[in-house]
Structure formats: C-alpha cells, structure tokens
Amino acid sequence: MFDTNTAIAILLGSFAILAIIRLPICFVLAFSTAVTMLYADIPLMALVQQMSKAINSFSLMAIPFFILAGEIMGVGGIADRMLAFADVLVGRFRGGLSHVNILASMFFGGISGSAVADVSSLGSVEIPMMVKAGFPSDFSTAVTVASACQGVLIPPSHNMIIYSLAAGGVSVGALFMAGFLPGVTLGLCLLVISAYMSIKHNYPKGEKLTLKQAFLITKDAIMALGTAFIILFGVSFGWFTATESAAIACLYAFFVSWLFYGELKMSMMPRVLLNTVKTLAMVFSLIASAGAFGWMLAFLRVPTIITNFVLSISSNTYLILLFMNILLLFLGCIMDMAPLIVIMTPILLPVAKACGMDPVQFGVVLIFNLAIGLCTPPVGSALFVGCGIAKLPIEKVTKSLLPMYGAMFIGLMLVTYIPALTMWLPRFMGVMK
C-alpha cells in the first residue's frame, strides 16, 4: 500500500520542478507520471498503455488534416484573399489596417483553426503592411497576436476535438457551433479596443475602395471562403463527421490553391508536408503524455479532492466560476494548450457541472482561457511567433498587448456568465437539445 497524499505530492512536485527547469512539457508529464507510478508500485507498462490509449482515437484523425489544410492555405494564396476581403469591409475606417488584421484573423481562423498558423501566415504580410502605413511596429504585432487567438474558438478547432475526448465524448459538432459566437465576441472586443486606440493615437485610415474594386476582391475571395462553409455547415447539418470535413477541406484547399489561384506549386509540397509532420508530432506527443498524466490524476482522485475544495470555498456560483477562470488564465501563462486541456478537463469539469454549466459551454470557456494564454509570456506560442516575425523583444510587444488583454478578459466574462452566447447556436442548428 502507498500513501495517496504522498503520491499526489510526488506527482505535482516533480511536475513543478521539471517544468521550472524548462524541460519539454511532454517529457515533464511522462517523467512525473513514471516517478509516481514507481512510488505507487504500478507497472510502468501502464504508462505506455495510457499514452497509447490517449492517441488511439478515430476523432484525432481530423487534427493532421486541419493542420495540413492550414499549411496549404498559408502558402497557397488563400490567406492573402482573406486579408483583401477584410480590407473591403473595414479598411476605410480610422486605424483601418488594424481592423483588417482582426477581421482577416476571424476569417482565417475559421479555416485553419490554429492561432500559430494565423500569425505565421497573415502576420508576415500584415505586420510589415501596417508598419509601412504608419502604425507602430509593437502595436501592429500586438494586434496580430491577439486577433490570432480567435482561431482556436471559431470552427474548426482541433483543440475542441481534444477536449471532446478528454470530456468523455462531448459532441464535436456542438462544440464547433458553440465556439462560433464566442469567437466573434472576442473579435468584436478587439475591434472596439483597436478603434479606441486608433482614434486616441490618430492612426491612419485605409484607402476607400471603389465599388468595382470591392466587387472584384469579393469575387476573388469567394473560393477561399468556401473552406469555412464546408467545415461549418458540413458538420452542423450532419453531412459528414469532423474527420471527414477536415479531409474534404484539405482537398478543397489544395485544389483551390493549385488550380484556381495557381499559387501553390508542387515544389512547395515537401516543405508543407514537413511542417505539418513537425506540428503533428508535437501535438500527438503532448496528447499522449498528458493522457497518462490525466489517468494518474484520476487514479489518485485529484479531481474529486479539488472539486470538493473549490465548492467548500464558497457557495456562490459566480465566485466559483471567476476562481476557475483565474486559475485557467494563470495556468495558460505557463503551459501549452493541448496538455492543459487533457489535464484540467477531468479536474474542473465536475466543478463546472456542479455550478450548472453545460459541458459544451465549459469546453468553450476552457479553450477561451487557454487561447488568451497563447499570447501571454512566458510560453505564449503565438506571441513568440509574432515577435519573431516583427523582430521585436517580447517585453515591448507585451506592453502593447495590455489593453487587448483587458478586452479579451471582458469577452471571456461575457462567455462565462451568458450561456446563450455559447449554447444558442448549437441548439438552433439542432446539434444538441
């Protein structure tokens, strides 16, 4: 027999120590689980079994297709069409290019489902364009990084597929629909703060396009927008599963970029496939190791202990939900999104249910919190990519991000305390009761 409290201390203590010394997070999760298993006299074969079990799911097949589709669209001209179409809609206002940046990220996020892909693809065009137009480089980078976080909320989002598995099979279609309005809400909050800062600092307006120019740009972007419609409506109406929609969207993006726009060359495909495999290896290693860590937490009854503790702090539902958000925001600053989804879902989902929150709404709130973490130091991947493109220090960009953090937090609170923002669309579309 072993002492449960000691085992929990070993698991969490070893995790904290290894994370502090900046060991890659997948190794941190695996090593801390292995050490705890040795103490508890559990065969290490169980570690391998749980890691294999975590990635042995048909639903995860959607992830490589979504990643590949994002890579193809980044080099195939689709991202440029999204940017031009956004310019038609909001480019003529004060600070127009910052609004274009946010709206283009909303469109591209609805296709790639990745904040890092958004920053990598659109940022390399948007940041130099804004700087050339007279915007400060740190503000341009901050807008690009913050707006990219819409990509993990607006469908498709492979992180929602990970949450679906961690939560025990919550409908992926319902999650996709539930993330749409919160993603738009986040975009609107960023547009408001961007407009305020543009007016305050007298940032330049964009050029007003003629009706003919607007029509031609919109016509050119229709094929690019088709990918989002395939994913959004295909899954919602039950025409195909999330995995099938990802595969179809991938093929559609390939043929549109190759045949229709002519910007994707066969010589580019080896690099596209290599980038996809690199990203996929990282994502799946995180899912596997986090799956084993999550199993160890459940074995030691950590979720039950934490649920009882949180509920004992206060009987006020609003305070409990606020505490849960603050905890997730803090964790999002120090860990990557995928392992946090797998680890925190079994811990906090019982708390959310006890507060009357639907698992679908909790999934969106969880991902919204962790999306903010993608643009916060010290491990925000979207922040790192944006700073790398702009060649700016993280400290300078983070300072410009402060007002945007406030706007994102307001959006998070709206989604947390107004269930209709999350639940109305999936119920209206008939994907959940």
Secondary structure tally, helices: 20
| Average pLDDT over all residues | 81
Rounded Rg = 22 Å
**Number of E-type strands:** 0
Q: How many structural domains can be distinguished in the coordinates?
A: 2
Bin the strand percentage: under 5%
- Shape label: globular
The secondary-structure element order is HHHHHHHHHHHHHHHHHHHH
Task: State the end-to-end CA separation.
Answer: 46 Å
**Level of helix content?**
over 70%
Summing up helix and strand content along with how strands pair, one would put the structural category as: mainly alpha
Biggest pleated-sheet summary: none
- Low confidence ranges: none
Descriptive notes:
By secondary structure, the protein is mainly α. It folds into 2 domains: 1-42, no CATH class; 59-428, no CATH class. The protein has 20 helices and no strands. The longest helix has 31 residues, at 269-299. It is globular and about 75 Å long.
Write the layout of secondary structure elements.
Layout lengths: L3 H17 L4 H15 L5 H11 L6 H14 L2 H13 L5 H17 L2 H19 L3 H12 L9 H9 L5 H30 L9 H26 L5 H19 L8 H31 L2 H12 L3 H18 L2 H18 L4 H15 L7 H10 L3 H24 L2 H9 L5
